[in-house]
Amino acid sequence: MGRIPHGVMIDRYHYLGYKPLPGAQIRYLINSPADYLCAIRFSAAAWKVGPRDSWIGWSAERRVQNLHLVVDNSRFLILPWVQCKQLASKILSLCVKRLPIDWQEVYGYKPVLLGTFVDKERFAGTCYRAANWIHVGSTQGRGKLDRLHEYKLPVKDIYLYPLNKNFRIFLV
């Protein structure tokens, strides 16, 4: 296939396409000896997520202070021609191990919690559950810019993965 930049791969094959994200982020391209398998991106966490924030148990003030310790899996693409059972959960497990090390190297601190949003109309979240992510609720289908409750977006399931067994000590 040759070298395809991460953004091009996401733009071409991911249903949400490629959009530049502000803030901290790390991107991985996963390959095999034969070809690329996956593109995955982790980025700064969403500002307010009711079910996540309730599950963590932090106040608005603590969220402002410690949100940087939460990182979202903002894109996950296994290329359409790749067929391999349990590949998605294996990639997530590998990323859970690797991401804190890389984040520390790039940004100078380790995140303690990962999060992601799974479009309920498109996906069942099976790979996240298989990789031991915790389902904590669903979005309201409004999005971050909907101040007047006018926008209707797909409802997404929210999954979290603690990177540190004492994550609440760091967040709350």
CATH hierarchy, class: Alpha Beta
On the 0 to 100 scale, the average pLDDT is: 89
Q: Compute the CA-based radius of gyration.
A: 16 Å
Which range does the strand content fall in?
A: 25-35%
Alpha-beta classification: alpha+beta
CATH fold name: Aminopeptidase
Q: What sort of overall outline do the alpha carbons produce when their principal axes are compared?
A: globular
CATH architecture: 3-Layer(aba) Sandwich
Q: Describe the largest sheet.
A: 6 strands, mixed
User: Helical amount among residues, as a percent range?
Assistant: 25-40%
Number of domains in the coordinates?
1
Counted beta strands: 6
CATH homologous superfamily descriptor? Gcn5-related N-acetyltransferase (GNAT)
- Which blocks of ≥5 consecutive residues have pLDDT under 50? none
For the terminal residues, how far apart are their CA atoms?
A: 46 Å
Strand sequence of the main sheet, in spatial order? 1-2-3-4-6-5
How many H/I helical runs? 6
Helix-strand topology string: HEEHHEHEHEEH
Written account of the structure:
The chain is α+β, with helices and mostly antiparallel strands. It has a single domain, classed as Gcn5-related N-acetyltransferase (GNAT) (Aminopeptidase, 3-Layer(aba) Sandwich), CATH 3.40.630. The chain contains six helices and six strands, in the order αββααβαβαββα. It has a six-stranded mixed β-sheet with strand order 1-2-3-4-6-5, sandwiched between helices. The N and C termini lie far apart (46 Å). The model has no long low-confidence stretch (mean pLDDT 89).
Identify the notable features of this structure and list them briefly.
six-stranded mixed beta sheet; 172 residues; 26% strand; Aminopeptidase; alpha+beta
